[in-house]
Amino acid sequence: MTEDSPAIAPMKTKAKVPLAPVRTPVIQSVWTWFWVALLAACIPMLVIYFSRMWRLDHYQYFPFAIGAVAWLAWSRSDRYFYAPSRISSLLLIAVGVLAMIGSWSLRSPWMMSIAFVCYAAACLSVMRGPHDKSLLILALPLLLLIRLPLGYDQLLVIQLQHLTTMMSSLLLDVLSIPHAVTRNVIELPNRELFVAEACSGIQSVFRRPAF
Fold it and tell me: CA–CA separation, 107 vs 152, rounded Å?
């Protein structure tokens, strides 16, 4: 090469852009049907369980709890179902299977509610939200679907009802409104207010005619 020959510039090569992985459509994914099958297996017993819950005023919120969790999961996830690859999801599935077996063996709809909550929580734990974060925290409202055993839920309602009555009485004292309290009835000069058992007395105070 002579001194007069022009310098050859180095050739620039374009960097290869990695191709995005091809993902199976959600309706064709085996994991979509895996989670659907787990949750659907709970339905026969859940129909009995939820019908009993609906008869209790303080449990009539459960459709809203389920709907809220479903809506949040749909709006915050990438709307795709994944394999139960996390330890938390595998443990929840194991507990759900044991609860389901116990429900079928003992004919206990209550145990099936535990299985349903475990399966739903396991599904949420592997669903991906913003920045690939788990959605397991969304399963917390579903814990309200599991009734306390041995009638402790009713005892809790009664205690909260008494507490609401006492707090209402204190508020009336602050407002200098004359009243008297008889159990869960607040007696005013011209009417009586009954602290409702529904929602442990928190939902509302209903008017009851005086006798």
Answer: 21
- Separation between Cα atoms, residue 208 and residue 194, nearest integer Å: 6
Residue 195, φ and ψ in degrees, nearest 5: -75, 115
Label residues 169-196 b or e (16+ Cβ within 10 Å = b): beebeeeeeeeeeeebebeeeeebbebb
- The DSSP symbol for 195 reads E
Please count the other Cβ atoms lying within 10 Å of the Cβ belonging to residue 128: 16
Sheet holding 205-208, edge to edge: 180-182, 185-187, 192-195, 205-208
Name the strand (E) or helix (H) holding 193.
Answer: strand 192-195
| Cα–Cα distance list, 122 to 12, 13, 143, 185 (Å) | 49, 47, 13, 45
Q: The pTM is what?
A: 0.70
Tokens of 186: 């607040």
Count the Cβ atoms, other than its own, within 10 Å of residue 59. 19
Looking at residue 128, the DSSP 8-state letter turns out to be B
Query: pLDDT tens digits, residue range 87-114?
Result: 999 999 999 999 999 999 999 999 999 9
Nearest Cα residue to 116 out of 54, 59, 40: 40
Q: Which residues pair with 194 in a beta bridge?
A: 185, 206
Q: At 161, list the tokens.
A: 């009802």
Nearest one of 56, 180, 78 to 135, comparing CA atoms: 78
Of residues 205, 131, 200, the one with CA closest to residue 162: 200
